[in-house]
Design a protein that fits this description.
The chain is of the alpha/beta class. It contains 7 helices and 7 strands.
Length: about 220
């Protein structure tokens, strides 16, 4: 059985193209693998708190030494990490905002990248003291952009700070493979946009079928911390 965590990052609860792609992916997956389990985290409904000085102090204090106030400061983070740990596949629906990820998704990332939970730190390892804890997860990023040409080789590929950012932090999330689908031309609302939406929907359904078909064993998500 595969455990999937869907994270919706769009501030729009309606008229969201990325949420529509997420619904399509989830429906196709459920059709093919109805016994798999889904967790849902809507960052518009429940935006994670931003990191504070109190949060940092609590995170870098040993679990046995934390005060009640420090445990409370990490309560949301602990819940988010537990969801991440339990998941084999992450389905992230995320629009591009100002060339990057929405602040709610950045806050989610900051809450789940945790010393002692998702990575270890040991100076005995020399110049590379950080070691990820989680392993062998996959991520599907379903995204949209107002402009176009953000894919490698495109005229705006140097402005894409969304997918590269996800790739940069995926080691901390235990993600081995990242699969991305993107809608473009949203601000133009012309035939190019319509074609991009159709192509993204087809790609999303095909990706769900391919990944669902490849899941033949129980996932290996574990919390080794």
């Amino acid at each position: 059985m595969t455990r999937l965590l869907r994270i919706d990052a769009s501030a729009r609860r309606s008229r969201s193209l990325t949420r529509e792609l997420g619904d399509l992916f989830e429906a196709e997956w459920r059709r093919l693998r109805p016994a798999d389990t889904w967790m849902h985290r809507d960052l518009a409904d429940q935006p994670p708190p931003h990191v504070t000085e109190e949060w940092i102090a609590a995170a870098f204090t040993g679990a046995d030494a934390r005060t009640p106030a420090q445990r409370e400061a990490l309560a949301v983070s602990d819940a988010l990490v537990d969801e991440l740990v339990a998941a084999d596949l992450l389905v992230v629906t995320v629009p591009m905002y100002n060339c990057g990820m929405p602040s709610a998704l950045k806050a989610w990332v900051d809450n789940v990248v945790r010393i002692g939970r998702t990575f270890s730190f040991d100076l005995a390892r020399g110049d590379f003291p950080i070691e990820p804890v989680l392993r062998d997860k996959e991520m599907v990023a379903l995204t949209s952009a107002g402009e176009f040409g953000f894919d490698p080789g495109g005229p705006r590929d140097h402005l894409d700070h969304l997918i590269p950012h996800l790739r940069a932090v995926n080691g901390y999330l235990g993600v081995r493979d990242l699969h991305a689908v993107r809608i473009e031309y949203q601000e133009f609302r012309d035939a190019r946009h319509d074609a991009s939406v159709r192509a993204a929907r087809e790609e999303t359904a095909a990706l769900a079928a391919r990944l669902a078909g490849s899941r033949t064993t129980v996932g290996s998500a574990t919390d080794a911390a």
